[in-house]
Amino acid sequence: MTDIAQNIARIRERIVAACERSSRNPDTVRLIAVSKIKPAADIDAAFAAGQQLFGESYVQEFRDKSPEIQSPVEWHFIGGLQNNKVKYLRGKVAMIHSVDRLPLAEEINHQWQNEATPCKVLLQVNIGEEGQKSGCDPEQLAQLVCAVAKLPNLSICGLMCLPPYCEDAEEVRPYFRRLRELAEQIERLQVPGVAMTELSMGMSGDFEVAVEEGATLVRVGTAIFGERVR
Ligand SMILES: *Cc1c(COP(=O)(O)O)cnc(C)c1O
To answer: Hey, whose CA ends up nearest to atom 7 of ligand 1?
Structure first.
């Protein structure tokens, strides 16, 4: 087994164990292999190990790298997104995790107008309310949901967060819990066309805690592919 295959197997075991601790069905948690800055060969190795879902963060890199991948992988875009780059994702990604403002949603809506199915999106929440960080303020989330929900060519499937960095994964737990509570609040508003089925949270250092708090999509890079060096 390659390192990558071994790492994936180990992470899957840890996800299952976290599900057992929190009485969850492991089938409700999907692992996203975050392959940013990693070569196509690493993606092929992960695919050979049974990993189908991949996350990328940089549009330019995704545009250059994705045509090299022959295997039928599912791509999610998880990084910061400028309006003028959305066109490069059209028809290529199954989900965009980083929608945090109406003009971006409007651009996705525009780009997806001739696609067979709406673009699945998650709304990114600045859960730690950190100054410079991307993500919608928690207080403005309901308003953003209502505005985005009116756009016909995208569908809101849940929330995503990138909590403040903490050495100890336990310190991140309250942020994950808060995101889940926010999703429950939004669910109660019963906005037409809006589902809060997905919670995208948890990375290499804290995905087990995220699973315990209800994550349905965990985004793991380093623990699968090793440290990223440019
Ligand atoms: C890079 C990245 C990850 C993966 O981080 P690791 O710590 O390497 O697991 C997850 N989410 C987002 C949004 C990222 O940009």
So the answer is: 204
